[in-house]
Design goal:
The protein has about 425 residues and is an alpha/beta fold. It folds into two domains: about 5-45 and about 310-425, Aspartate Aminotransferase, domain 1 (Alpha-Beta Complex), CATH 3.90.1150.10; about 60-305, 3-Layer(aba) Sandwich (Aspartate Aminotransferase, domain 2), CATH 3.40.640.10. It is built from 14 helices and 15 strands. The protein has helices spanning about 5, 10-30, 45, 80-90, 105-115, 140-150, 165-175, 200-205, 235-245, 275-285, 295-300, 305-335, 360-370, 400-425; strands at about 35, 65, 65-70, 95-100, 130-135, 155-160, 165, 180-185, 215-220, 250-255, 265-270, 340, 350-355, 370-375, 390-395. Helix 8 (about 200-205) links the parallel strand 8 (about 180-185) and strand 9 (about 215-220). Helix 2 (about 10-30) packs antiparallel against helix 14 and helix 13 packs across helix 14 (about 400-425). The protein starts with a helix and ends with a helix. The structure holds pyridoxal-5'-phosphate.
Length: about 425
């Protein structure tokens, strides 16, 4: 459908551009310095977890179910931390390791292990010639960077409202042994906020990969991050695997980065018993045992899944108004112009915005000139190349509500002006 600017007469369009340029000049004159670039919790949110810091002191009992917290040992993590992580992911604690504070770090280490040593008794990926990884796009830029870092070819896969295009996933995974993995954020995907439907999860669990060392990288980063209502239920992929009788197909990851403190939370992963034994062996070379003092603080603070949910409800009170403001500002500013679509998730950290083809880079650049930093255009695609140059990731959690409102006003003017200029370009 043509945009409202494309539908205007030449005179109307010139007048619209002039009016928008003067709005932009007024905004530029304000000298704003606002940031809607990265998905970080606001200081108000991280403050929710500060009481955790009071739960440990020099007289605390530094044992957990008989395990010494203040010494080497428990390479898979503290028993109660593993139980908590298992409850969050809905899996058996026996198959869970809690290690370090970054799930991205765990994903990297697993990719590195597959690359240098191979998985499931297969040759290292590095010795198998050109290998490929599927990247539902728009997706999480840091996932794509991990695989690109090892020279693995990232292949974009269209992302639908209920998950990736599974016909394409099936064709590539089942037809091409050079396809070794797929990045998935199954709940409140970064950046679309999509929740994979049961049908999509079941299709993943039914894949018959051409490569024996193909794995699904199931990054459940936002499993408990609902901010509106009850949130959606994600079918547990390990339950789906039980239905299909498949094994050794999924590595699942999670962390409390956006539950407690980013970079100071606890990270965890799970997989089939055979895959976990392989991963444990690899991880045992990397460290004697994980940092456990933070794990103890986390289990004392969060206790169990109910505790996590109660804590996330407090986050939701802070986060929801920001996401609501994104919706109201975008509707107010852009409804009827037919120049944009955007998602309206009930959880996670992002809104995915699409402007006209060829607009994203120009919009991000113009917003920057007007004092608002956005995630670089293209970042949501492998190699930073959005084929339509239309997608922009909006990260509304960090700024204050006032700053967010001002940033969105700038964003709306930038979107309109770029759309109008594009309509003018088309006429030249
Ligand atoms: N996975 C996804 C999908 C994310 O969006 C993020 C952070 O934005 C991470 C992982 C990073 O998690 P961690 O801090 O546990 O490495």
């Amino acid at each position: 459908m043509p945009t409202a600017y494309e539908r205007m007469s030449d005179a109307e369009l010139s007048a619209a551009i002039a009016a928008l340029e003067s709005q932009a000049d007024e905004l530029r004159a304000k000298g704003l310095k606002l940031d809607m670039a990265r998905g970080k919790p606001s200081p108000q949110q991280t403050a929710l977890s500060k009481p955790m810091l009071d739960l440990l002191n020099s007289s605390s009992d530094l044992t957990d179910q008989g395990v010494a917290v203040d010494n080497y040992g428990a390479p898979d993590g503290l028993p109660s931390a593993r139980a908590l992580a298992a409850e969050i992911l809905g899996v058996d604690p026996k198959n869970v390791v809690v290690i370090g504070s970054s799930s991205l770090n765990l994903m990297h280490d697993v990719i590195c292990h597959a690359y240098t040593h191979g998985i499931g008794g297969n040759k290292p990926w590095s010795q198998q010639g050109k290998i490929r990884f599927l990247c539902p796009s728009p997706g999480y830029d840091r996932h794509f960077k991990v695989t690109a870092h090892y020279g693995i070819e990232n292949v974009p896969i269209p992302m639908n409202e209920d998950g990736p295009d599974m016909a394409m996933v099936k064709r590539l995974v089942e037809g091409d042994p050079s396809v070794k993995g797929i990045w998935c954020v199954p709940k409140y995907a970064n950046p679309t906020g999509a929740v994979y439907s049961d049908a999509v999860v079941r299709k993943f669990a039914s894949l018959e990969p051409a490569a024996p060392d193909f794995r699904i990288f199931w990054d459940n980063a936002y499993v408990v991050h609902t901010f509106r209502g009850e949130g959606e239920e994600l079918l547990n992929i390990f339950d789906a695997l039980k239905e299909t009788g498949k094994d050794d197909l999924v590595y699942e990851f999670g962390s409390t980065a956006k539950v407690t403190f980013p970079s100071s939370g606890m990270a965890f992963m799970t997989a089939s018993p055979a895959d976990m034994s392989d991963i444990r062996a690899a991880f045992s070379v990397m460290r004697v045992s994980p940092e456990k003092i933070s794990q103890l603080a986390h289990v004392k603070f969060l206790r169990n899944l109910d505790g996590v949910k109660a804590h996330m409800a407090k986050h939701a009170e802070i986060v929801r108004p920001r996401f609501d403001l994104v919706q109201s500002k975008l509707h107010e500013g852009l409804d009827g112009l037919d120049c944009a679509t955007w998602t309206n998730p009930n959880g996670g950290y992002f809104v995915s915005f699409d402007g006209p083809q060829g607009s994203a880079k120009a919009t991000v650049a113009l917003a920057a000139q007007l004092g608002v930093k956005l995630t670089p255009a293209g970042a949501t695609w492998p190699y930073g190349k959005d084929p339509n140059d239309s997608n922009i990731r909006i990260a509304p959690t960090y700024p204050t509500l006032d700053d967010l409102g001002s940033a969105l006003d700038v964003f709306v003017v930038a979107v309109k002006l770029v759309s109008a200029r594009l309509a003018m370009e088309e006429r030249k």
